[in-house]
Automatic annotation (TrEMBL):
Binds 1 heme group per subunit. It comes from the Bacteria. Keywords: Electron transport, Heme, Iron, Metal-binding, Transport. InterPro entries: Cyt_c/b562, Cyt_c_II, Cyt_c_prime. PROSITE patterns: CYTCII (PS51009), PROKAR_LIPOPROTEIN (PS51257). GO terms for molecular function: electron transfer activity; heme binding; iron ion binding. This is Cytochrome c. The keyword Iron applies. It comes from Stutzerimonas nosocomialis. GO terms for biological process: electron transport chain. Heme c binds at residues 138, 141-142.
Amino acid sequence: MKRTLMAAILLGTLALGGCDRVDPDSPQGKRSALFKEMLRVSEDLGGMLRGRLPFDAGRFAEGAVELDNLSRQPWQYFPDERDGRSSARDDVWARQERFQELAREMEAATAALVAASGQTPLRPAQVRPALQQVEDSCEACHREFRAY
């Protein structure tokens, strides 16, 4: 009896735990994956400028291009209406014009980072302001539209 009860509880716990997952093929899953990848790339770039990682001009320039490419992708995965559980506020859907404006600012900031990282020889001081603009554009959108 105890084994059966314990097995039922364990099975129920596992089943409920699986309900918390987001379908990776859903719009929410796709944009979440893109944002996580953007974060990974920007953390590496920031790490190079803040001394956490050694500065490598070639890797930095490649990362800037990758971040620029990634910055243009997640917006297509915000459907017209809210889709399930999301860390985005309802304002994303209610204030689409402002949300798209901030998305374009992010894209402009990442393009400027690519331009700044094309200088040779590339030095951290040359790209620091451009990376700060990228980080500021992320933060601006999060302040308005992300539910913490």
